[in-house]
Amino acid sequence: MTFGFAPPPHVSPPASADPAARLGRMLEPAEWASAGIPLLRNPREVVAGLHDRHRPGPSTAIVAVLDPQERLTASASFTESAAAPDGWEFRNALLAHLRRVTPHDLRLRAPVRTAVLLYCREGEPRWTETDGAWMWGLRDACTLHGLRCGAYIALTPDRWQVLGEGRGGRRPRPSPLDKPATEPRRTGAVRMTAARRPAAPRPDVPRTAANLSVAQSRSAPRRTGGGAPEAHRHTAAR
Q1: Which of 36, 66, 35, 43 is nearest to 162 (CA)?
Q2: In the beta sheet, which residues pair with residue 192?
Q3: DSSP codes of every residue in 101-153
Q4: C-beta of residue 112 within 8 angstroms of C-beta of residue 64
């Protein structure tokens, strides 16, 4: 694994205002597909879970960390302007939020957790320069945090699309029973969640309904033969 250090987010790279330099910090779908990005087993479930957890609006990025079983361990959402998309600035933003919600895995010989990115924007679901800058930023942030670079998902008003794979679907709709968020959404506002790492499942023991019922019966308290102790009887004196 390559180790490195990222400068503070407020530090811009040399010639960051140069359009040619910014174009060099973007990835096209063909480059992304050839980079060996692992496929999500159930992208629809991942998108629905992140959408329900963060309720993203336009220009909102959601970075999430998944364990080897594709369970969510941490996530953060924040708004980022895409007027002049630059992979360097996106990398710094992603790295800053990853550091807040989850420890790095740089001490491991190989990454075991995967970071995925969902970006909510207007327009069509096909690739844009903004998507290319986010892809570049995600790949670099994962390297610097010891994570495996995972899928990049563009969320548009009508649908979601895993770019570089061709998989997509309808945009999740919020449940009518859910209450809308009351706090105002500000540019740069951050919403972070962190989940405890679940214990690894026992080897060669599939998680089935039968196993679950056995586990529940084992966890129930046992009663011994004597039952509950008798209450003391008080005899009233006549």
Answers
A1: 43
A2: 76
A3: HS---TTSSS--SEEEEEEE-SS-SS--HHHHHHHHHHHHHHHHHT-EEEEEE
A4: no
Dihedral sign for Cα 32, 36, 41, 45, please.
negative
- pTM, full prediction: 0.69
Residue 54: CB atoms within 10 Å:
22
Query: Is the pLDDT at 34 greater than 80, yes or no?
Result: yes
pLDDT tens, 125-167? 999 999 999 999 999 999 999 999 999 999 999 999 999 888 9
Q: Alpha-carbon dihedral of residues 157, 116, 184, 188, nearest 10 degrees?
A: -110
Determine the Cα–Cα distance for residues 69 and 221; give it in Å rounded to an integer.
31
Digit-coded pLDDT (tens) for 98-124: 999 999 999 999 999 999 999 999 999
| Lookup: tokens for 52 | 């329900």
What pLDDT score does 237 carry?
Answer: 43
Where do we find the tokens 């694994």?
1
Region of 204 (left: φ > 0; alpha: ψ -120 to 50; beta: rest) is left
